[in-house]
Amino acid sequence: MEQKTTVLSSYVEESIPLGLYIHLPWCVRKCPYCDFNSHARDSLPETRYVDALIADLEASLPLVWGRPVQTLFFGGGTPSLFSPDAIGRILREVRALLRLPPNAEITLEANPGTAEQEKFSGFREAGVNRLSLGIQSFDDPMLQRLGRIHGAAEARRAVEMARAAGFDNINLDLMFGLPGQTLEQALADLDRAIALAPAHLSRYQLTIEPNTLFHHQPPALPDDGLIWEMQQQGNERLAAAGFHQYEVSAWSLQGRQCRHNRNYWEFGDYLGIGAGAHGKITDQGSGRITRLWKHRHPDDYMSRRGGAFVSGSDTLDAADLPFEFMLNALRLTEGVDRRLFRSRTGVADSAIAATVTALTDDGLLEGDTTRLRATELGQRFLNEVIARFLP
Hints:
The chain has 391 residues and is an alpha/beta fold. The chain is 36% helix and 21% strand.
């Protein structure tokens, strides 16, 4: 693969935070809206896959020598299908090979349909300290339309099990704009989620993605006006309940923001391990920023030998970096420190000055010499705002 190799400014700081993402790609059943690299399978090749993960991690070490890992995230698929012994083995290897501070945030995604008290307790004992539950809705007919394997009662029990296992940092994933959903149903879902008192809520609008069943057989979704009402009235209820919106789809109680996801949004570095996992690494000497990705299909990934897990990579050109940075940074509701743009990209502020001025004149951005943020109008048309930073 041909790569672009522009050398960036030496202004890039050595303190860029590093996260670790570990992909566990299997689930019980593929949801019709899901475009993630997930695969339905009756039985897991658990030991073989964990062996491959460890070999992948060992082969990746030269990319991150000496750098502490601030956050670790088990994503999927359905990571909670794996046993606590497997998760514990992975974490022991991570601690042996990398610098994982005692206060590192370690998140595991779980499906309420696979929730077991013994498993949750085992995950907590292994070192997982944050649990993310894929609830999506508390309406049983709606869950059936979404192809979920759990019901509302199981969702509530999963939260109870998580608390009994010792988790006090729990995220609930919730969707709105579902097939046939009314405003009252969307707000009722949110009220039920708030009543469970999670530390964090991720609330997403359902979107139809390519290469999904919903893309080939589109369901009837609420119109744009109704979806806007679901979002706005939902935002008001979350704020009234003491949640702070710090990103377009993320709400948290004080001190409970997702540090791993925040690192993505602030253009931090992350190492991706597992089938189809992506990473973004800044070379601390040259400042070059490289994106790389692993072989996607689990069987192909597990068959790799000699460290040949990387499927492709691309070193970013300086001209691409304003868009790459703003793609996620402008999702943060409080905006982004302009010094962070310079320190994370190595690109001078002058490279974005004209675009920032034009967007400010259009009422889509606001800020000063130290900070940039999207206005309320800019948040509503965020994709268009970010696209203005394309080369």
